[in-house]
Give the backbone structure.
Amino acid sequence: MRNIKPTTILAIETSCDETAFSILQNGKTLSHQVHTQISVHAEFGGVFPALAKREHDKNFTPVLAATLHEAFGIAIPSADASTNHNLDEEMINSIRAFLTREDGLAADLIAYFQNMPHEDFIKIKSSLSGIAVTYGPGLEPALWVGISGAKALATLFTLPLYPINHMEGHIASVLASAHPSTVTTGPQDALVASGQEGIPEAIGGSPLIDFPALALLISGGHTELIAINSWHAYAKIGQTVDDAVGEAYDKVARLMGLQYPGGPQISKLAEKWRSEHASAGLAQTEQDKSAAQLFSLPRPMIHTKDYNFSFSGLKTAALYAVRDKLADPAQNNEPLRDKQKEALAAEFEQAVTDTLLHKTKRAIEEYGAKTLIIGGGVIANSFIRKNFTTACAQLGIALFIPEKDLSTDNATMIGLVSYFQIRDGKPGLVPGTPEFDNLRADGNLSL
Ligand code: KG4
Ligand code: ZN
């Protein structure tokens, strides 16, 4: 019987502030590693591209080593291990040539491979069948670290390179699992992963995603609505004209004196407000009214006929609402009280949710979508999750949401897209060819 080699992809993601590697075999996760830089950026209140790049340089090799360890049991070589001469001079020069702008990364990678037992080096080479890397959109200095590192690895192991659009990764994230070996990619798993039990259209259904589908991508950098007719056939039908929804969360959090990233903290305050008002026996509309009475915020662009969003006006409205509150003689020159912060958070979250829901529902109707996919860091928000779950149940369409570890940036989603591409016959870039050499970071890459 012919032995068919499985498709085993090493995937790399460095588009923003996560250095992430994963290994997938035939679409199933063997390893999932994410190193987040959040604590490094927190003191500056946002992500600085040059700082992000430096952190990716530093973390690239340790995260790669952890990934190869998790997937194939490759021991992490100690710094003083005897040199095994896995790399000849030509290989060393080629690693250095790809990584001229990555301080220290070339040296780290060379030391890592040189110190590794030869059997391990051969095991990596014989196990992998391709490398996938995010090439946009994102912060270009950060993207370049992943791309240059991926080129060095693809050349070293003579593997095809698959450049992947980060946003397609967020779409595919709903079909993946961050947990190696326990869950395979498949219909049941996607449901378990998304916590969407009870959606009959999708249970055991094949094909997994019923098309046409609509994707709502909500993160710190993006707010987009994408119509999907089949895998790889995307049409962007709407996007933010200014700030992304996560960015608005972070900016409003900042004006309330909360630390970056503010999304999860606003969400907690809003939750507190809602739970206290619900326990006081107020109906949903009543609680909204009372939060809105304290801080009334607009629902920007909700009545425009297009599918675009705007969140910068909402942030400015929050700023003015706080300013007015502080100028109120009743405030007595005191900063916002805890209850006021909770009310502002609740009203802000309600305004965001109303806006996202309104436009998405309209797009679902116009495009006849049978499935809604939501990806990106903001879908970690439980209020937004709950509201979309209810709305999709009412509309009778399937909802796919990634498991929490896959809503923020990761490489598993990038590897899964490359797996779909390979399955559908798309060739990778071959080391040494002009197409391979010309692969560049594209910060504004669009679907
Ligand atoms: O997708 P992501 O990890 O990175 C980008 O590509 O931007 O998204 C990060 C964004 C941040 O703005 C963060 O504040 C927001 O997602 N976020 C949340 C929540 N958790 C993360 N926003 C609202 N509620 C949350 N629970
Ligand atoms: Zn992202």
